[in-house]
Specification:
This protein is of the alpha/beta class and about 725 residues long. It has 36 helices and 17 strands. The protein has a seven-stranded parallel sheet, with helices on both faces.
Length: about 725
């Protein structure tokens, strides 16, 4: 009774809560009784309190093993703000700081010591801990101990032996992401099979789950963020390079964002993390290195720019949204190309690691493409049965086509039964489709009654059906062999008493991506088409002709057709938006922009059209260091061949870059180079041709200028000279 009163007093006095949440009190009581404790609790449900509060009421120092430096710093900062003496011991500390931390622990002043697993394995640190008075060991993010988990860390495997060395201490292991297989693996490796298990529901009903095809992703992203200006969010990318690219995109589109990845200097990472926590920026663009243990309750959205490596990682990262129980979004952009990239990352791993990684990637891919309620699918993966759709995911709100599946479900169940209930999806599909693989032959499954009985369907059909049967509880995984599938009790009942059953078609993202202009361009098809406003386009052409006549230039020297088409697509109504149109740039905006902006403004008002500020996505690409460097070299009159060599580009590629700069309105003086390779009369003839031509099309110029007398490179150089002198 006294302990209960003390716990509640500390809960109110230190943490400001009047009551415990969920199973927190039972977990804490079990740990304080000296028992090993295993906690499975979703992100945001209050795991950290389950070891922080017991540490405060226990004699000695609690050791908290944590995988990330950022996580340690965040939690220590929060505890110190509450007046609790906590320290961390990791590689960021100097020798004198480490000595200070150890002295405080040995003096009994520190209630919690956060330690990285790598730090814990050092002999000097083990010897130091043997001298200290310790209360218990908490192992946070315990899934890192399992090779079946998504963040396997070999150092975690050594923890049990180190605990035995420093003293017979109670252990509390905690994780927010563990499948039934990973749960068993954690307990086995920590030798705590007898530990009491506290498992909360993984369901977070306030989170909205959506998977979108990766089409026009930049436009989708900017529109989404502009609609949520001032809200906090995290955007996860797979690589440091992608983080920087997305950060630059957001910055140029006036989104208050900062990057976070392991390639940044450590102080900058900490500063950016603090800025996000302190609401000095709205959006953090990060690799998965960001977020573990970040206790920010009002994250309103978590966006995955790329598909994650596993469903465990996805669940944990999305769990950082909406910790205050207010509705929040979890959006993933998906392309089949993401899966190909993820598989390439694993090529240097051992065979066993590759197989585990491939399994996790496949589960991720099937989650993304499935038409089943996303919440049901996600919770099923973590061993939690849900019998109704959630109504709060894109598959529930915009369902795919449903189909009747009674006969094919029965055939699938017969196949699993006849093959002995010990094979993975791919083998079962091979049997159903009649694929006479060596593996099928080795088990003589080509002689079964069910062999080839499903060949009227596709491989994808059977893969999808089997996975939906798993979600709906007709099948279950074998915990001893993670990939093996067997028939559940519900499935056995269905075989005996079948009934009508409907399934959902999967999403065909590959087809959607094939139809996307942006993704075609990403694949190297530059000839993309845009659905521009034909009426506005014709009005802009007429205005261009009028301006060109006043200036005495050919119309294309003002703006090219592709630039006018883009204006008639995104409707720029100010200088900044017009400058972002391809082939324009601020130079041309200053010279020619005003009448075009005025025309577009008037057209937008008369036709009640979304303005450029709503739909335009500014590009950071045109401000690349490469282009600035090329401009500087030309200003210094450096030979183009030297520029080619320095940039490791062909002459044609350098001309591509120079043309892009020139068409964006920047004046370039190439006379120093052109005068070396061309006589004055040749220059004059080409210059005069471009002045009177209706188009600057190179092929037409080659045909009209005297039977191959001029090379393509000469014409390109003179076209640059002409546009620089006349149009810019």
């Amino acid at each position: 009774m006294t302990l209960d009163i003390n716990l509640k007093n500390k809960l109110r006095e230190i943490f400001g809560y009047t009551q415990f949440r969920g199973m927190q009190e039972d977990i804490i009581t079990n740990l304080l009784a000296g028992n090993n404790t295993f906690v499975l609790m979703p992100t945001g449900a209050g795991k950290s309190l389950c070891y922080q509060l017991p540490a405060l009421v226990s004699d000695g120092t609690a050791i908290i093993i944590s995988p990330l430096i950022a996580l340690m710093k965040n939690q220590v900062d929060q505890l110190e703000a509450l007046g609790v003496k906590a320290e961390f011991l990791n590689s960021t500390l100097s020798k004198s700081e480490m000595t200070r931390v150890k002295k405080a622990v040995l003096a009994g002043e520190t209630k919690m010591l956060y330690v990285a697993p790598e730090t814990l394995t050092k002999e000097s640190n083990v010897e130091f801990l043997k001298k200290a008075k310790l209360s218990f060991v908490a192992i946070d993010e315990a899934h890192c101990i399992s090779e079946w988990g998504h963040d396997f860390r070999p150092e975690y495997r050594k923890i049990r032996g180190i605990i035995e060395t420093i003293g017979n201490l109670p252990i509390i292991a905690l994780t927010a992401t563990a499948t039934p297989k990973v749960q068993i693996d954690i307990q086995k490796n920590l030798q705590m099979e007898d530990a009491k298990l506290f498992k909360s529901s993984f369901n977070r009903p306030n989170l909205y789950y959506e998977v979108r095809p990766k089409t026009s992703i930049k436009k989708q992203l900017i529109r989404y963020l502009k609609a949520r200006k001032g809200q906090s969010g995290i955007i996860y990318c797979l690589s440091r390079k992608k983080v920087e690219e997305v950060y630059e995109l957001l910055k140029v589109n006036d989104v208050k964002a900062l990057p976070y990845h392991a390639g940044l200097e450590s102080q900058m990472r900490m500063n950016n993390q603090d800025a996000f926590l302190n609401e000095e920026c709205d959006v953090i663009v990060a690799t998965i290195a960001f977020g573990m243990g970040i206790d920010k309750p009002d994250v309103r959205f978590v966006i995955h720019y790329d598909a994650p490596k596993s469903l465990e990682g996805y669940y944990q990262e999305t769990g950082r949204a909406g910790r205050d129980s207010i509705p929040s979004d979890c959006i993933m952009f998906y392309s089949p190309a993401d899966i190909v990239k993820l598989e390439k990352f694993n090529k240097d791993k051992t065979v066993a690691e590759r197989e585990n990684a491939r399994y996790l990637i496949q589960e991720m891919s099937h989650y993304a493409t499935s038409g089943v309620c996303r919440r049901r699918l996600l919770l099923s993966y973590f061993g939690e049965a849900v019998h109704e759709d959630c109504g709060n995911c894109n598959n529930c709100l915009h369902p795919t086509t449903k189909f009747q599946a009674k006969e094919t479900v029965l055939l699938a169940l017969d196949t699993i039964f006849q093959t002995g209930e010990r094979f993975a999806f791919n083998h079962l599909v091979d049997v159903l489709m009649g694929d006479n693989t060596s593996y099928v032959q080795s088990y003589e499954h080509n002689k079964l009654d069910v062999f080839a009985k499903g060949k009227t369907q596709t491989h994808l059909y059977w893969e999808s059906l089997l996975r939906q049967m798993l979600v709906f509880g007709l099948l279950e995984r074998d915990l001893d062999a993670q990939t093996s599938i067997r028939i559940s009790e519900k499935g056995k009942e269905y075989r005996d008493y079948p009934y009508a059953i409907t399934m959902n078609q999967d999403h065909d993202y590959a087809k959607l991506l094939e139809e996307s202009d942006e993704d075609k361009e990403a694949l190297g098809n530059i000839q993309t088409t845009k659905a521009h406003d034909e009426q506005l386009f014709e009005m802009l052409k007429a205005l261009r002709k009028k301006v060109a006549k006043q200036k005495g230039f050919p119309p294309y020297a003002i703006f090219q057709d592709p630039s006018l088409e883009e204006m008639a697509t995104v409707y720029p109504t100010n200088d900044q938006d017009l400058a972002q149109i391809n082939g324009v740039g601020m130079g041309k905006v200053v010279r020619y922009g005003a009448p075009f902006i005025e025309l577009i403004k008037q057209y937008v008002e008369e036709n009640d059209i979304e303005t450029a500020s709503d739909v335009i996505v500014k590009s950071a690409v045109n401000k690349s260091k490469s282009k600035i460097w090329i401009i500087q070299q030309i200003d210094r009159k450096v030979d183009l061949e030297e520029i080619c060599e320095a940039q490791n580009l062909s002459f044609s590629e350098v001309l591509d870059e120079i043309e892009h700069i020139c068409y964006s309105g920047t004046r370039l003086n190439l006379d120093y180079y052109i005068n070396q390779i061309m006589e004055d009369d040749r220059q004059e003839e080409i210059f005069e041709y471009f002045m009177n031509a209706e188009t600057d099309n190179l092929q037409i110029a080659l045909e009209e200028l005297s039977d191959g007398e001029y090379s393509e490179e000469e014409l390109r150089l003179m076209r640059i000279k002409f546009l620089s002198e006349v149009a810019n």
